Known about the structure:
The chain is of the alpha/beta class. It contains 11 helices and 5 strands. The longest helix is centred in the N-terminal third of the chain and has 22 residues, at 47-68.
Amino acid sequence: xxxxxxxxxxxxxxxxxxxxxxxxxxxxxxxxxxxxxxxxxxxxxxxxxxxxxxxxxxxxxxxxxxxxxxxxxxxxxxxxxxxxxxxxxxxxxxxxxxxxxxxxxxxxxxxxxxxxxxxxxxxxxxxxxxxxxxxxxxxxxxxxxxxxxxxxxxxxxxxxxxxxxxxxxxxxxxxxxxxxxxxxxxxxxxxxxxxxxxxxxxxxxxxxxxxxxxxxxxxxxxxxxxxxxxxxxxxxxxxxxxxxxxxxxxxxxxxxxx
Length: 258
Ligand SMILES: [Zn+2]
């Protein structure tokens, strides 16, 4: 076994370092800031663009860590793809992949995922994972965004009523399917909790669902919810729908009262 060690180390090196460069990024250019290493192709982005993109990312990160009240000192490996319409963040390492379409609209959603995964872990509920990222997005006009979130909730209720599908089931039973409305609904609900109870309470709720199996999620979360917020999940959900949303958007959510 002893004389296999150098071979294993060499093998580990190749496995490690080969997988660190995603397909299509060998020999790509790199732009480095305090918290980002941006990999890009010069045929797609010029140096002025990359500088602007990098500065924006630093500002978005700063804003997210301020809201979350955390320190984040890691470097996020950021791969800018030339084509496509998707973006994603890894949950086990600070690495994001973004296409040009996303970069132009970048509101920090993927950065938020990275910071949350690193600082709080990976919550078992997709509602929570996406909701907290949506809550941390930067949008220039906050009231409008809030309105859009809530309007999305309103639109969502048309089918959610029909299916008896509430925030509770999407969150606690993991029936979240990843539609745009569900993203906005999750973001709006967590935003409401953070506004009323503070960011530390939302972080606590998030952390309570890390590593919890899907079959135990509802029971665990409902129990923890009362401890953190001093009201039941159902009461918070009802208040959010019938009072908070109603105050903000008035008649638009009337279908929720039917
Ligand atoms: Zn996301």
